[in-house]
Amino acid sequence: MSSRMRHASCPEESQARAVLFGANTQGAGFSESARGKSDAPRKLFTADVVRDADNESPSLTELLEDGASLFDAGNLPVEGLAANEQLAVVHARFVELFRAGQRAIGVGGDHFIKYAALSAVSEVFEDCAVLYVDAHPDCAQNEALGFDSILHHAWKLPHIRPERTCIFGVRQVNARERDGLRAWRPGVVAATELVERGLPAVLEMMAAQLGDVRRVFVSVDLDGLAPHEVPAVEAPYPGGPTFRELLVLLRGLARRYELVGMDVSEFIPELDTARLTALVTARLVKEFAALPAPR
Ligand SMILES: [Mn+2]
């Protein structure tokens, strides 16, 4: 049985402007990190931990909005499925919500949720850019789809393009990913740009990299954010943007683009001793759901 986020008070999915669902995808693998290399499946369902944390520490959004336009659809049944079956289930859910004109918010799960979401974006929209928040560029040119090759494979889809992708927060890159960056040449914005240029200039940089599109999809690997706020990830690495910086940038993007959806991945509940990561994820979901459409 899955819980629901009480903040999401829209009673019917069909009436909702934004729809939250969990999808505990597994099998994309993990990076080598201080925690050691492991392919062991995670025990806890991330989305339910996020819901529980929010239900225990409820709050309106920062701008005092409630969740009346957000519906919580529970969790997709992906556990125990083969990788291609997981991808198909999550892909279909994103497609369904995009076609209904609803903002789709999927909480993973591992990196497979990102490929499922991006393949759905490519299927439904011809003019959608991607903001990819991650400490890692995930563009190793590997034949197999895995945690470090999501964008390499996504850029082969018909309507996902490196020249309409901004990778934000990149700061830990291996040689294979560097080769991928040089081959595909996506937009990249380092978190240090926030200090050097200031946030308004970074928003302009992002807009230039996202290109001349109407829509943007946001894909968040939680390790992209600063690990002092988001510690419970497989590969924490210092120096990322803070949650508040990301939120201000998302508000700026929402004034210019239709934000069609978001995925959030890589939260490891067992490591979240202070529940900070769960609360950041819950707040990200609530704030993202409440972002207005562009005028
Ligand atoms: Mn990452």
From TrEMBL:
Matches recorded under Gene3D superfamilies: Ureohydrolase domain
Protein biosynthesis as UniProt keyword: no
Binding site for Mn(2+): 111, 134, 136, 138, 221, 223
Keywords for the protein's UniProt record, in alphabetical order: Hydrolase, Manganese, Metal-binding
A Pfam cross-reference name: Arginase
Record note on cofactor: Binds 2 manganese ions per subunit.
Family designation: Belongs to the arginase family. Agmatinase subfamily.
Cofactor(s), by name: Mn(2+)
GO terms, molecular function: agmatinase activity; metal ion binding
GO biological process terms held by the UniProt record: putrescine biosynthetic process from arginine, via agmatine
PANTHER family in the cross-refs: ARGINASE/AGMATINASE, GUANIDINO ACID HYDROLASE, MITOCHONDRIAL
Keyword Cell cycle: no
Name recorded for this polypeptide: Agmatinase
Top-level taxonomic group: Bacteria
